[in-house]
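Homework help board

Subject: predicted structure for assignment chain

Our instructor gave us this sequence and asked us to write out the predicted structure in token form, then describe one feature. I got the tokens but I'm not sure how to describe them. Can anyone check?
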Amino acid sequence: MRRLVLAGAMTLVALACATADAGTLTFFGEDLGPGAGNGRVASPVNSDAAQTSFLSNLVGVGTEDFESFSNGTTSPLGITFGSVGATLNGSGSINEIAAGATSGAGRYPISGTKYWTTSGDFSIAFTDAVSAFGFYGTDLGDFGGQVTLTLANGGGSKLVNIGNSINVPSNGVSYFGIIETDAADAFTAVTFGNTAFGSDIFGFDDMTIGTFSQVQVVPVPPAAGLGLALMAGLGLFRMRRRKRFDA
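My token output:
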């Protein structure tokens, strides 16, 4: 598995990274919150960096920001991602708060004034198979809960734990994205799970999907690959030189 650090700011920040494993790319950024009653994360640099990296591998994708729904709307929810439609089912509801504000417990929208909030499980079924899915989450983990995703298609399912921090101050923000670079791994539904079902409440916003035709993975720049090769060669040279002197 390859791990690439995308951002390293230390103020209210945990990490931002991208990983690749057997044709699956994942993107994760987390900005720890200032705590209850202290508003939003002032500058979610890692979350935004993860979203930017995720989107850089896609073209022409659609994003659902929940702004078209009334406050308090529950499932089933017909949502759209441009050319691909979807139905959201399960626990939760649309919540609306003023721009720049947070809910009493620390959740908030990323864009506009509305977002999906839940303490349980919910699923999204797509009208067409998709190969990419990304979203923002707010107030994750302050009561010990982690977000899990189950990606399903006709051939089976894949469980992914996004790995958000737990038992941290409230009001934080995270971004997670996943891209399947093999067409055979496209999925038709995603289910959100909560390892602290019923006790840790999450907020979700700005969900993005991409079909396989919209995936255009950015390759590692040749200069970066050359740099890695030179570093490896230098390390081997030093090791051989050390062995010769020790003989």
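Reply (TA_rk): Your tokens look well-formed. For the description, you could write something like this. Residues 2-216 form a domain with the Jelly Rolls fold (CATH 2.60.120). That's the kind of observation they're looking for.
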